[in-house]
Structures
1.
Amino acid sequence: MIGASSDLSSLRGRLVAVMDRHDYAAELIPISRSEATVAGRPAYKSITEAPGEVDMAIVIVPAPHVPAVLADCAAKGVKAAQIISSGFAEESGAAGRDLQAEIAAIAAASDLRIGSRDLKVGAPIARTLGNCLAIGNLARFVRLVGEARTKYMLLTASLIDAEEAASSGFISELLEDRDAVLARADEMARGITDLAPLTLDATMRGLQRLRDTVPLPDDHDLVKQCFGSADFKEGVSAFFEKRKPDWKGA
């Protein structure tokens, strides 16, 4: 649980308590930047520090921080994530829609991608929060849609629509609506379980080895430049205050 807390007056704390009270069968690993332990369990500052494989992430953090958390989930190889947060398109207008598009872009880390006709994809962070993509996510973008289209999306803070996402290969199938996407995802998952598991495993591990052939360069200085800046703090404040950020380049 990312954003877990020992504070029972908060939703983050109550969810932990409910899971304990009802003997939640799976291992619960709390992720907290402010607490060393949560409900008697050691807490980790990032999902990337959690031990072993993670099947499911429950994300309970403020909306501006969700994309970075999901990027960490992708880096960890988390199989699924559930977001419990507000401040997206349902109440934050264009800024919220931009965050949703950035979340869709992080789905690039998944192995198979399908979408509906209302899909928008991009990472308009130069307009919203003033942060940056980790170099691993940048590499995924380039691998999927090419360097030129990646530059266009990031340097103009633009979104691509469902048709362009399909034509570029970002998604493999374009369906009419959300219900059709969910039905097709279930159909695909069931179909995959009928296939030869060793072939699937060898395919996925072989593709991973191809990606690992060229190691990624270090990007700590770039991440520190953006996430440690006054501009990033301004971007987060502007998001919550529903105003345009005043960038200073510092």
Note: The chain has a mean pLDDT of 87.
2.
Amino acid sequence: MGLNNGLSDETAKFLDAYSLPSGVMNAEGQWLFKNLSLKEYLAPLDKECFFALLENRKQESAVKKLIVRNKRVQLVEAKLVANVTNMIVCCTRIDLTLFSHPVYLIEFHHRAQRLHAFSSLNRLYLEQNKHEKKTLTTDLKLQQAVSDSRIDPLTKIANRRVLEEALPTLWDQAFHSRSSISFLMLDLDFFKNINDTYGHSQGDKVLIQVAKTLTNNVKRTGDIVTRFGGEEFAALLPNTDIAGAQCVSDKILLAVRKLNIPNEGSAIANYLTVSVGSYTATPSHLKVDVANIVHLADLALYQAKEKGRNCAVHYEVSEDIELTTDN
């Protein structure tokens, strides 16, 4: 196998058959090989260094950095000497086992043809980009619509739908891990009196305050706080036994009291209070009855109201349903 200044005969023949004026140079710009087209093109110039083609030699350092630092194709549009001003240079770093140092394939493209190709590609890119943006906008609107359907518009926390969709998954996880899961229902005591006494605008502000307080106190990873409807809120607590449910309920009762929101129409205090009902279970089967879980928590909430409100009542499933209370 013969060599052409380090290139194999096969590589040299390939480049010679290449229609574009092309060659191989080292990092210093010295030509290691020029194909027939390039020899013919550069013959009048008698330049054995690529960088000698630059009309302004001050560009040499900048152009050399562009070439040496890029392993991928790098277009270099430099101000070339008069004979090649209608050309654009394309440089690609190539790895040849015959060389222990980087070498570069240099191609000379006619400026008009190259720019025409760029213009066509640019138009295609813009059309594709326009289509992709339109598709992305549609997707984002759809995602936003889906998101909005799960967010309570007033309090900006999750709505009942989120809880009901998450419950089967969390129940399944609890079943396989043999852990407990708790569901809390909360009702603002005598909330109607706030609307009647202070107006519905103030009532909305109270709901927002309570929602924020709940999210600040029920914030483990996996916990879900929702506005269940009206003045009712709910919390779904995975990996939480009855003691944990009682602890969370106590935190909520205290946090709402500390808000010290006036409620002169309340029959039990001159500030806002809440009642809590919770249901705790360790699943013994995969099938979950969402409606029954909500019913049992709501039943506990009803018992809390019967006890005088401003307290919590807890159900726990064992062989027999047990009832415990917190004040």
Note: The CA atoms of residues 120 and 230 lie 59 Å apart.
3.
Amino acid sequence: MLTSALRHLKPQFLYCTGYHTPCFHGTLDLTCSVDNPLIELSQHQTVYHFGSGNSYYLGDGALLKKEVTTLRIFADYHTHTVHSHGRGTVEDNVKAAISANLRAIAITDHGPANLFGVGVKNLDVFQVIRQEIIACQRKFPHIQILLGVEANIIDLDGTLDVPLERLHEFDIILAGLHLLVHTNSLLSGMVMAGNLIGRYCPVARNRLRKLNTQAVIAALTQYPIDILTHPGLNVDIDTRAVAEVAAQTGTYMEISTRHHNIQPSYLETAFVAGARFVISSDAHSPGEVGEGELGTQLAKAAAIPPWAIHNLS
């Protein structure tokens, strides 16, 4: 279900699936330790490095170099502008992406169901954003600029606040479960409100967890969602159950650098269940565009192999 825009940007190198765990500690050398045994690196292997830490990964596809290749995001698929809850224009975000040496950026303003003016006023706003993207694409042809949406799951049956028949208007589709939204039914509204206090009541939390998971899975199976945004943020879900369905539908689970609720254990559980990931900034100001360091740190802590994260390069 991967969009053509995302396929176009897929990394061109392949990773060796034999070594998923950090394999270097200390000085880089021509041998490394994976669960103690020494492995001789061939001339056709390269070493990839997550962020600024001291953990390294083996990968195929390039000659071995003395220096380490640091993995960074090459695209930020989750950014907001003044059209919803952001503080910069489309052009501001694009310029920030260029400054961050990104190859692509998606403008993904909130859907219309968000309360308190957080979302777009109506779906027609996205056509205004499209025109601004077209103008920016002419001005900055060396970066790919995608029109997206961060749609809201507004019902336990998985309904989004962007109708299925309108989704073809977007290059990339993000969706997430947010608390403060207009819901489709009284029951769904009660569940969203319940999540605000459910964390303090174990009995209610267990019930809400099942309902939240039900809503997310229903959305994944009904809509061509490319990225599930900040899974579990403020709403408890069954990570394994959601990840299994995301793997089946080809939906990436987001590693957000904006929200610090993500734990390595969540990534480990999702990965084992078959999920693949995207690191994104969820930028609400141009200065946040392209921020990926926290995401690479989390991936390193959870020993997620680089090939499982779509936008690493």
Note: The longest strand covers residues 144-152.
